[in-house]
Amino acid sequence: MTDNLTDRLEKNSMGSTPQTNPDERRQYLGSLRERVLVRLSVAQFKNKELVETLVDHIPSYQNYQVLINNKINTPNASLIIKSCSQNNIRFSLISDQSAQTVDEATGVLVVSKDAINESIIDITQKYNKKTDSNSNYKLEKISVWSKIKKLFKGE
């Protein structure tokens, strides 16, 4: 225990403050998993439809910040930046060591200042459910209408 304390004191005196969960921070553009609301991987960030889905939801992120991996060369970043600016949503372009370019790395995050512990953060899982429920509603509405038509026709 004293060795551990001595090591921490030595590192602190050299000007390096210890960081909590450094591997997790590298994975989430300097943030922590517990603060993430929505995540797009680098591969998803290059997909215009998924970026447009995110842009559609940006007005609801008033108490959040959008972190954008600035090492990815895609015109989709300008769509997100423009929407954040129009809706007064804070955003940051991340170019440090946490910004990776492999497809599985993080491309865009919507994060909170505090822990929110969202169980589902992947954009395809988070917003696909809402799309599915809306399409089911439309199918039910059509099927009810077709039943009424059949009633009037005597079928």
Automatic annotation (TrEMBL):
Region (Disordered): 1-25
InterPro entries from the UniProt entry: DUF1694, Ribosomal_eL30-like_sf
Bias-annotated ranges (Basic and acidic residues): 1-11
A family per Pfam: DUF1694
Domain of life assignment: Bacteria
Protein name: DUF1694 domain-containing protein
Organism this protein belongs to: Holzapfeliella floricola DSM 23037 = JCM 16512
